[in-house]
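Blinded run. Sample ID left blank on purpose so nobody reads anything into the name before looking at the predicted structure. Input follows.
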Amino acid sequence: MVALFLVLVLSHAPGLLAEEEYYGSISRLEQCSGADNLTVKFNTLYMNYNGDTRYTLTFNLTCSKPLDKPMDMMFEVRKCATEHGPCEDFLNHTIENLCTELETEGSIPATLFVMAGLPAKCPIPKGDYVTEKTEIKIHPELLAMGRFGNYWQFKLQLAHPTPSGPDILLCLYVEGRVATVKAKKLKRRKGR
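Blinded prediction complete.
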């Protein structure tokens, strides 16, 4: 789902790739603060750095009741001047009718749910779901966000839409950094 954040950001800012190379790191991945009473709760959630842009994701979550239509997936992306702020809104996006997207084979949400060990169809049964050491890689186009800033905050939420506002079911918070690395061109000396 973290990858989905990044894909959505890039879909709203095409043509980001340049001659520069980018390096990305995830510094914080956790359930949103104050989200202990939500329908979907992370019991464990952590990421290990494997080098380059690769990470291993492990989590155990409990879904206390079935998740069914209508359900939306909401993303908030903030760009920050430094690791500790100040930050400003960069992108807010909602995928409405998430269940329909899940039922579309090969869609980004369906692919991500399967990768996370969740069923890619509604209703999603209540129960415990475990993903152990699933390798994820930060997509190169995602790293091109470094052209807009170095520090980023992402929030992912699943929610039932209601007339009084969304009923939040799941909330995931991520902080990351993207740095630009300019490749040096080495000149060869004559005779070598």
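Unblinding after everyone has recorded impressions. DSSP finds four helices and eight strands in the chain.
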